[in-house]
Structures are given as structure tokens and as C-alpha cells.
């Protein structure tokens, strides 16, 4: 069992996390700064009273603890307020107009080049409003078509004349909220512009910042890899492994690694930071075998870790690992001992103090829970068996580490990804060593790339290794035997599974009857909640017309059976627009629609895509219009139908149909305009 008394940062982190969560639901309110100031003042008073006033009493201690928790809670609110860039008076959003306007920006990250578009992260420096220029701050993303001869690089200062666009809310139920994702990164608009509307002002950035150094190094390394003889797959994977530039990895490759349980390899993480740390310690030990220059080593390692953090773009997992390793090294250097759990929570607190919105970052959560699982569960599993053979023991240790990390990250991964890689332990066992070989070879290539012969040899090794790694990842990319998909997992399931795992670990450690009894009651409560949820779903009937660009996609849900026309929908669009909704249904059964007419509870639903003229004796309650199919509305319906135009119709056709419905006093919806249309039946 963990002794929480020896982990003071758990008591500090808990009220702070509670404040961040409350801020997410309640948001800001008037008097926020006053409450923070009052809480700080109360804490100071109780601190001095507790410290210097005699005699000591339980009342003073309780008052001090309550004021400390109140201060941490209000500090979370204050941190959230300060992190939100829109709260700054000079933020560009305060000067945005609905019409096109000019603004000056600096390219602050590597432009991402795709077949159709160029995506450029920029930082706004100045903006024009009503013929007046204003100093401005804030980040946004510039998109323009990849058909221009003009190229832009990191550090370029550019003049843009276009309109700021808001990111749309999700158009389908439970769809990924890209708007919220960007807002958590302090990006509130995106900009679409033609190439002629973007002009280069200067090649260099007049501003200087420490992070700029790391970003420039990152851009140079990516450029060297891009201009080499590496295959496209090898280039994208090497860029991801070395500096965290994963924007150009093919989605099919990402999916293969996800299904094999090795997706974490493709993003710079704690594993990569640990490897760098080990190499630095090893290199320094060659010159200082007796460890006489501990402080010099500390500065040397810290400098390289800090540089690595900036090169990787302040990745949460790298920040976490770098902070932890720095704290561990600090303790060893200055002869101080610390609790490993305390070090982990201290690094989490420092990161959340700087950016409280990291609590919503899936990578941040998975990273910390994985490390916590390895720290807590691996020593327990290690005692099960020890092999005398070193190779077998190394393999066994690797499997146990993967299992320990997976157990603790299971609730989060099931909630966010709704799939489980069956062969995760063996995939990690094989693929991780290959990825380490590729990473070391890529680092070597960056050193010797100007030497022709060595360049050729290293590139050949990287290309062959990358092909082998991709082939191994694709072996388990099969839903029949490689992974379990479409796992319905709600917030309730997340809470129950987390509690169940915690109780199981307590039983292994404490072996008490009360803990076993508590686990039994928990499982009964979880089962009861699942039965109740299933019972509710069995009585639900719903018609839904999805918002999918230029396509007709609809479904009729009767209980836990979904009748849908998904066969012709591309896999990528199914995963993005439809699957999030389907994942909310337990015991899901999908039945393809073969007819253009459906009936449920005596109500008729017709999809008008084959024959526009409805039969005079038909009496549909809902008519779904697709592919600009002309519809002859009649007035002798017993009940007036609801007309729904899906996204496969043109704007011109829909306007005409809308006028027809208005003249006939018939309800009309257009999925492209309103988003997915959901109707309870």
C-alpha cells in the first residue's frame, strides 16, 4: 500500500485539481481575483497563527488546513484565468471584425505540407481595425491551398489580408470537438487565405525568445531529414521519434500502431526522454568515472534536457519526464532523498500550474497514469517469477512493464479510444527495440549526413528498419484477432473500472476481507448501472440524419439495433462522424438498410432518392430528401410530414425546397445548416 502521509504533494494536488474541474463546469465569475486575494490573506493569517501562536490546538490546525485547501482551489481558478489568452487586453480577438482585415504575423512553428493544403501556425503581432493598426498578441493557424510557388519558413514575418474564421462546433452527436481542442491550446480562430493574400515582409523574426532557439533547431533537423533519401514513411517516423513532428505521418500508419498498442512510440514521450537522459549520464561518466563533478554533471544534463523540451514543442509527456528526471538528479546531486510518488506529483503540479488545461490532454493523463502504474504495480508483478537467464528476464521485465502501464491506463484508453489492443505486450516487446534502433540511427544520420558513404549506409538501415516495424505493426491491424473495437464505455464505466482496479490492488496488498466485500458491492453496483442503462436504451427509438459533407447518411435506432446506410461511407468518415454516436449504444447491432421506406411504431420514414413522386395513398411522417431529388408535395396527407434534406443536396435545390415547404406549412430541416438532425420517435 502507498503511504499517503509520505506524499505531501497528493494533498496539495487534490484541491488544485478540484479547482480546475470546477472551473471547467462553472467557468469564471465576478470577484474571482478578490476571492483569490482573500484566500491568500486568510492562509497567511492562519499560517502565522499556527506557527507562532501558543498554545497549539486542533481548531487552529483545522482552520489552517481548510484555508490551505481554499487557497489551492482558488489558485486553480486564477491559473485558468491567467492561461486563457483572451483575457489579455492586447489579444487579437479584441480587434477582430466580421470583414476581411490585414494583420502581421510570425510563423512560429514548422509549416505542415499536405497534398491539398499548407498549414502554418502563426503568432499575431499587429492587426488593422478601422484603418488603425494595433499591437496584438495571440496564436492562430493559417491555411491556404498548396498551389503557390511561394514558400514560407519558420521565423518569416508575413502580411495577411483575409477574414478570421471561427472553428465550428461538432456537427454530429459525440463527435470530436476540434473547437474545444484548439481553445485548450489558446487558438480561437483559423484563417483561410489565397496565396496572393499572403505576402512576405521579412525572412527573420525581430523578436527573440528561448523557445525560438529550440523551434529553429527542430525545423533544421526536420529539413535535413526531409531532403534526405529516406522514404516518406521513414522521414515521418524519424521526425516523430526525434523531435515530435508527427503531422505528416499517414493516418493508416497511425491506425496500425494504435491497434497494436504501440501508438505511444510515434510521439516523443517519457521513453525517449529517458533514453536521452541515460545517454547523457553515460557520456558524462566516461569523463568522470568517480563522480567528482556532480554539480557540473547536473548543469550539463539539465541544459540538454531543457533544449530537448523546447525542440519537441513543450510536449506534455516530455515535460513530465524531463521534470521528473531533473528532480531525481537534483536529489542525487545535493544528497537529498525523496519519495518517487512525491516527485511524480510535484512534476504534475508544476506543469498544471503553468498550463491547467493539460488536465484535458489525453497524452498527459496517459503518461502520468502509465508511470504511476509502473512505479506501483511493476514491483508487485516482478516478485511473481525471476528467470536466471538474462535474456528471458529482460523479456519478462518488458512484458511486466507493459502490463503495469496498461492496467493503470485502461480506464482512460477505453473511454477515449473505445478499443483494446489484444497483443499490446508482445507488440511493445518487438516494436520498441526496433523504434529505438531507428531513433539512434536517425540521430547518427543527422551527425554524418554530409559524409556520402555513411549517409547511404545509415539511410538504408533506417528504411529497412522502418519497413520491418510497419509490417509488424500491421500484423495485428485486424479486428478479428488483433484488437477489440466498438467498446461502449461511458463516464460511469470509467469511474467504476477505476475504483475496481484500485480495490483489486488494495486486496493484493492488504488481503483483507472488507476490501473483497467492497469489491463485490462495487461490481454489483456497476452491473446494476449497466442493466439500467441497457433497459433505458431498449425503449428508445430515434431517427438521425448525420452531417457528412456531400453524402446522404442516416440511421434509425430501435433500442440497441441501428438500421443505417453506412456501406458506401468511406472508413475515415465513418470513424469521424458516425462511430462516436454508435459507441454510446450498448450491445450494438448494425443492420444495413435495403429499402427506401422504414416503419416503426406505425410511423413511416421514406428516403426520397429514387422516386421523387410519392404515392397518393402513402402517408409518411418523415421524408429524407437526398441527391437533389425533386419532391412533389401533396396536401392530402393525414398528418403533415417533416421534410429533412441531408448533406447530399445542393444549396440551390434546398432553397427551392425550403420555399415549397414554407408555402405548404410543412416543417423543414437541412442537416448541412443545423448539423445532425435527431428525432425521438
Layout of secondary structure:
Layout: H1 8-26, H2 32-52, H3 58-83, E1 101-107, E2 112-113, E3 117-129, E4 132-135, E5 139-145, E6 157-162, E7 164-166, H4 178-183, E8 187-192, E9 198-202, H5 210-226, H6 232-243, H7 251-260, H8 270-287, H9 294-311, H10 316-333, H11 340-354, H12 362-382, H13 390-417, E10 420-421, H14 424-448, H15 452-475, E11 483-484, H16 491-510, H17 513-538, E12 541-545, E13 554-558, E14 561-564, H18 571-582, E15 589-592, E16 597-600, E17 603-608, E18 622-625, E19 642-645, H19 651-663, E20 668-670, H20 671-674, E21 677-680
Parallel strand pairs: 5-8, 14-15, 17-18, 18-19, 19-20
Antiparallel strand pairs: 1-3, 1-6, 2-3, 3-4, 3-5, 6-9, 7-8, 10-11, 12-13, 12-21, 13-14, 16-17
Walk me through the structure.
The protein is of the alpha+beta class and 681 residues long. It is 52% helix and 15% strand. It contains 20 helices and 21 strands. Strands 1, 2, 3, 4, 5, 6, 7, 8 and 9 form a 9-stranded mixed β-sheet that branches. A 5-stranded mixed β-sheet has the order 15-14-13-12-21, with no helix packed on it. It has a 5-stranded mixed β-sheet with strand order 16-17-18-19-20. α1 packs across α3, α5 packs across α9 and α10 crosses α11. The longest helix has 28 residues. It is globular and about 95 Å long. The two termini are 52 Å apart. The mean pLDDT is 83.
Main β sheet profile: 9 strands, mixed
Helix content: 40-55%
Shape: globular
Q: Give the rounded overall mean pLDDT.
A: 83
Structural class, from secondary structure content? alpha+beta
Question: How big a fraction of the residues is strand?
Answer: 5-15%
How many strand elements? 21
Structure annotation, total helices:
20
How far is the N terminus from the C terminus?
A: 52 Å
What is the CA-atom radius of gyration, in angstroms? 29 Å
Query: Low-confidence segments, ≥5 residues, pLDDT <50?
Result: none
Amino acid at each position: 500500500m502507498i503511504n499517503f502521509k509520505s506524499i505531501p504533494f497528493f494533498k496539495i494536488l487534490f484541491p488544485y485539481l478540484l479547482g480546475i474541474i470546477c472551473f471547467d463546469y462553472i467557468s469564471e465569475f465576478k470577484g474571482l481575483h478578490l476571492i483569490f486575494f482573500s484566500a491568500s490573506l486568510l492562509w497567511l493569517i492562519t499560517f502565522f497563527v499556527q506557527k507562532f501562536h501558543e498554545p497549539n490546538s486542533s481548531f487552529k490546525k483545522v482552520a489552517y488546513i481548510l484555508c490551505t485547501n481554499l487557497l489551492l482551489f482558488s489558485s486553480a481558478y486564477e491559473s485558468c484565468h491567467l492561461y486563457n489568452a483572451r483575457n489579455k487586453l492586447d489579444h487579437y480577438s479584441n480587434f477582430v471584425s466580421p470583414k476581411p482585415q490585414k494583420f502581421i504575423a510570425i510563423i512560429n512553428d514548422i509549416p505542415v505540407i499536405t497534398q491539398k493544403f499548407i498549414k502554418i501556425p502563426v503568432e499575431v503581432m499587429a492587426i488593422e481595425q478601422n484603418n488603425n493598426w494595433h499591437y496584438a498578441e495571440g496564436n492562430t493557424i493559417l491555411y491556404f491551398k498548396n498551389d503557390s510557388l511561394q514558400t514560407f519558413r519558420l521565423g518569416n514575418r508575413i502580411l495577411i489580408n483575409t477574414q478570421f474564421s471561427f472553428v465550428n462546433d461538432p456537427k454530429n452527436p459525440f463527435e470530436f470537438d476540434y473547437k474545444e481542442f484548439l481553445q485548450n491550446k489558446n487558438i480561437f480562430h483559423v484563417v483561410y487565405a489565397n496565396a496572393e493574400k499572403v505576402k512576405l515582409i521579412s525572412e527573420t523574426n525581430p523578436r527573440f525568445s528561448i523557445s525560438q532557439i529550440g523551434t529553429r533547431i527542430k525545423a533544421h533537423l526536420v529539413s535535413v531529414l526531409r531532403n534526405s533519401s529516406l522514404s516518406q514513411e521513414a522521414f515521418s517516423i524519424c521526425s516523430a521519434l526525434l523531435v515530435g513532428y508527427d503531422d505528416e505521418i499517414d493516418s493508416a500508419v497511425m491506425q496500425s500502431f494504435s491497434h497494436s498498442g504501440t501508438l505511444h512510440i510515434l510521439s516523443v514521450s517519457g521513453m525517449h526522454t529517458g533514453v536521452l537522459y541515460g545517454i547523457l549520464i553515460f557520456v558524462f561518466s566516461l569523463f568522470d568515472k568517480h563522480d567528482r563533478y556532480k554539480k557540473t554533471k547536473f548543469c550539463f544534463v539539465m541544459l540538454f534536457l531543457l533544449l530537448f523540451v523546447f525542440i519537441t514543442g513543450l510536449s506534455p509527456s516530455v515535460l513530465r519526464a524531463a521534470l521528473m528526471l531533473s528532480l531525481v538528479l537534483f536529489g542525487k546531486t545535493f544528497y537529498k532523498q525523496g519519495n518517487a510518488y512525491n516527485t511524480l506529483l510535484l512534476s504534475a503540479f508544476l506543469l498544471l500550474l503553468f498550463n491547467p488545461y493539460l488536465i484535458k490532454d489525453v497524452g498527459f493523463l496517459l503518461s502520468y497514469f502509465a508511470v504511476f502504474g509502473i512505479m506501483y504495480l511493476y514491483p508487485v508483478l516482478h516478485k511473481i517469477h525471476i528467470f536466471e537467464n538474462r535474456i528471458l528476464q529482460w523479456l519478462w521485465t518488458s512484458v511486466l512493464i507493459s502490463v503495469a502501464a496498461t492496467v493503470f491506463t485502461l480506464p482512460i484508453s477505453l473511454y477515449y479510444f473505445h478499443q483494446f489492443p489484444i497483443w499490446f505486450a508482445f507488440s511493445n516487446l518487438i516494436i520498441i527495440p526496433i523504434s529505438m534502433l531507428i531513433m539512434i540511427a536517425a540521430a547518427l544520420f543527422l551527425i554524418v549526413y554530409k559524409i556520402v558513404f555513411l549517409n547511404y549506409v545509415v539511410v538504408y538501415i533506417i528504411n529497412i528498419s522502418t519497413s520491418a516495424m510497419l509490417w509488424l505493426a500491421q500484423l495485428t491491424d485486424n479486428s478479428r484477432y488483433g484488437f477489440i473495437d466498438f467498446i461502449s464505455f461511458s463516464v460511469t464505466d470509467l469511474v467504476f473500472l477505476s475504483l475496481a482496479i484500485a480495490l483489486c490492488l488494495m486486496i493484493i496488498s492488504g488481503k483483507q476481507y472488507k476490501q473483497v466485500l467492497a469489491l463485490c458491492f462495487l461490481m454489483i453496483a456497476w452491473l446494476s448501472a449497466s442493466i439500467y442503462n441497457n433497459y433505458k436504451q431498449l425503449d428508445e427509438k430515434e431517427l438521425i440524419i448525420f452531417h457528412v459533407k456531400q453524402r446522404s447518411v442516416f440511421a434509425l435506432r430501435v433500442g440497441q439495433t441501428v438500421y443505417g446506410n453506412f456501406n458506401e461511407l468511406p472508413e475515415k468518415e465513418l470513424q469521424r462522424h458516425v462511430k462516436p454516436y454508435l459507441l454510446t449504444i450498448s450491445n450494438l447491432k448494425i443492420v444495413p438498410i435495403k429499402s427506401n421506406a422504414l416503419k416503426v411504431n406505425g410511423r413511416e420514414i421514406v428516403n426520397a432518392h429514387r422516386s421523387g413522386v410519392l404515392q397518393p395513398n402513402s402517408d409518411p411522417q418523415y421524408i429524407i430528401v437526398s441527391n437533389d431529388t425533386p419532391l412533389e408535395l401533396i396536401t392530402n396527407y393525414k398528418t403533415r410530414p417533416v421534410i429533412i434534406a441531408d448533406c447530399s443536396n445542393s444549396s440551390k435545390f434546398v432553397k427551392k425546397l425550403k420555399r415549397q415547404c414554407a408555402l405548404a406549412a410543412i416543417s423543414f430541416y437541412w442537416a448541412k445548416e443545423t448539423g445532425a438532425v435527431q428525432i425521438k420517435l
